[in-house]
Design a protein that fits this description.
Layout: H1 12-19, E1 25-27, E2 39-41, E3 44-46, H2 48-60, H3 62-68, E4 83-85, E5 101-106, H4 117-135, H5 151-157, E6 161-166, H6 169-180, E7 184-189, H7 195-203, E8 207-210, H8 215-227, E9 232-235, H9 241-248, H10 250-260, E10 271-276, H11 281-294, E11 298-305, H12 310-316, H13 346-352, E12 358-362, H14 364-378, H15 392-398, H16 400-409, E13 419-424, H17 432-449
Parallel strand pairs: 5-13, 6-7, 6-9, 7-8, 10-11, 10-13, 11-12
Antiparallel strand pairs: 1-12, 2-3, 4-5
Helix pairs in contact: 2-9, 4-6, 4-9, 6-7, 9-11, 10-11, 11-13, 14-17, 15-16
The protein binds pyridoxal-5'-phosphate (PLP).
Enzyme class: lyase
GO molecular function: D-serine ammonia-lyase activity
Family: Belongs to the serine/threonine dehydratase family. DsdA subfamily.
Length: 450
């Protein structure tokens, strides 16, 4: 694979913004209004049936999850987040009249792991556990999975290891769930990972391996170590179908939430979804699910830090290329630790080719300003990565590229009745001292803009 930057195919203005780490918007010329029901990715195809299978697996484990995680007792083991109207935030974001309505999908409050990564991470650990449980006769197919909480079952699962490479939040999700089920759990953390996330995992009996390099290096180290242990399952954030399908199950729940809140999704009422993106698995899984269940009038955009736009450079590159942000002279340094990824998942990128509407980038200072606006208007505590989506509506209305997309897609004509959904992807577990630091920085950014 080459890593050449495709100068000839890129709008030169966009390329200049990218290189200079200025916010930019890329829209996808290959998006299809009516994509095939089964889509190819890395040599296999996936469809809505796979999303339903993931949702069914999560449901089969709900009883067990409620037993091993006291915080899930109230929801009977269901790990879900609310859909919150965010009208109060619209003035702070500078919205004009006629821009439609803003909602947030509050994955920052997802229990157990505190981030969007709980969805995929939990699903993959449960899929591994289910395979072993059936193989060892610990449960009957579709039987009562609470049997896995018994000491005898935990002893069997404890012979196996689950490993993962992460910038922090996937590690949190995999580590916490795997160790709660009795697995040996190992998390390879990139240099970006925050100390408190490592401490929290260690307190739960998870082995944390610290790497001086970036996310890609942490994943590679984990993959290599796992290859030498036949009893180790490596959760591969760069190419895992199980992770991606776990994320995609969110679409089924969101579909119900939209209906409950009377939000229509049709040609007159487009739904525009803004999703923070790291390697791409989480936003791609959700986009895959949403496009399957909601059809052509849902438009998904990924949001990345200006120094880590790995998904944007991947989508701009030709087939067979796998560029990194370093190829563009960028540093991959960002306070949005969950999004600090230099090279996109090829699984996510291939799957998104016919589905995604575009990708935009956000400066770190803007993330902190959004974090404070969300606190002040809604009282919600999010982490910097989770704030990336809030720049989406302004990128559409206030940039030439956004306005061109609004015209070309037809969304502009229905904008007054649009629903904007910003996916807030993490924050619940951020310790207070760290959070207050985020707020201080955000207030300083806002004061400098006043
Ligand atoms: C808070 C948060 N948001 C978004 C993402 C992006 O997920 P992905 O890396 O699958 O694109 C991450 C990844 O760790 C994250 O931690």
């Amino acid at each position: 694979m080459t890593t050449a930057v495709p100068q000839t195919t890129v709008d030169s203005l966009l390329a200049a913004c990218l290189r200079n780490a200025q916010p930019a918007l890329w829209s996808n010329p290959a998006r299809q209004a009516q994509p095939a029901a089964a889509l190819p990715a890395l040599g296999r195809t996936i469809s809505l049936d796979d999303t339903h299978a993931a949702a069914a697996r999560l449901a089969r484990f709900a009883g067990l999850l409620a037993e091993v995680f006291p915080e899930l007792a109230a929801t009977r083991g269901v790990v879900e987040s609310p859909l919150l109207p965010a009208d109060l935030l619209q003035p702070a974001l500078g919205w004009a009249e006629g821009q439609g309505r803003l909602f947030i999908k509050a994955d920052h409050s997802l229990p157990v792991a505190g981030s969007i990564k709980a969805r995929g991470g939990m699903h993959e650990v449960l899929e591994f556990a289910e395979g072993l449980a059936l193989q060892h006769g610990l449960v009957e197919p579709c039987g009562d999975y609470r049997a896995l909480a018994t000491p005898a079952a935990r002893e069997v699962l404890g012979r196996y290891q689950v490993a993962v490479g992460s910038t922090g939040n996937l590690g949190m999700s995999i580590g916490v769930v795997a160790s709660a089920l009795g697995f040996q759990a190992t998390v390879h953390m990139s240099a970006d990972a925050k100390e408190w996330k490592k401490d929290r995992l260690r307190q739960r009996g998870v082995q944390v391996v610290e790497h001086a390099g970036d996310y890609e290096r942490a994943v590679a180290a984990g993959r290599a170590e796992a290859a030498s242990n036949p009893l180790c399952h490596f959760v591969d954030d760069e190419q895992s179908f199980s992770l991606l399908l776990g994320y995609s199950a969110a679409a089924l729940h969101l579909q119900k939430q939209l209906a409950e809140q009377g939000v229509a999704v049709d040609a007159e009422h487009p739904l525009i979804v803004y999703l923070p993106c790291g390697v791409g698995g989480a936003p791609a899984g959700i986009t895959f699910g949403l496009r399957q269940v909601l059809g052509p009038h849902v438009f998904c955009f990924f949001a990345e830090p200006v120094q880590s736009p790995c998904f944007m450079v991947q989508m701009m590159a030709g087939q067979g290329e796998h560029p990194s942000v370093y190829d563009w002279g960028l540093t991959n340094r960002t306070e949005a630790d969950g999004l600090a990824v230099p090279r996109a998942s090829l699984l996510a990128a291939e799957l998104m080719r016919p589905l995604l509407s575009g990708v935009f980038t956000v400066a770190d200072d803007t993330l902190f300003a959004h974090l404070v606006r969300v606190l002040d208007a809604l009282g919600e505590r999010i982490e910097p990565s989770a704030a990336a989506g809030f720049s989406g509506p302004a990128m559409l209305t206030s940039t030439a590229a956004g306005q061109a997309w609004l015209r070309a897609s037809g969304v502009g004509a229905a904008f007054a009745h649009a629903t904007h959904l910003v996916w807030t992807t993490g924050g619940l577990l951020v310790p207070d001292a760290q959070y207050q630091g985020f707020v201080q920085r955000g207030r300083a950014v806002l004061a400098a803009q006043a």
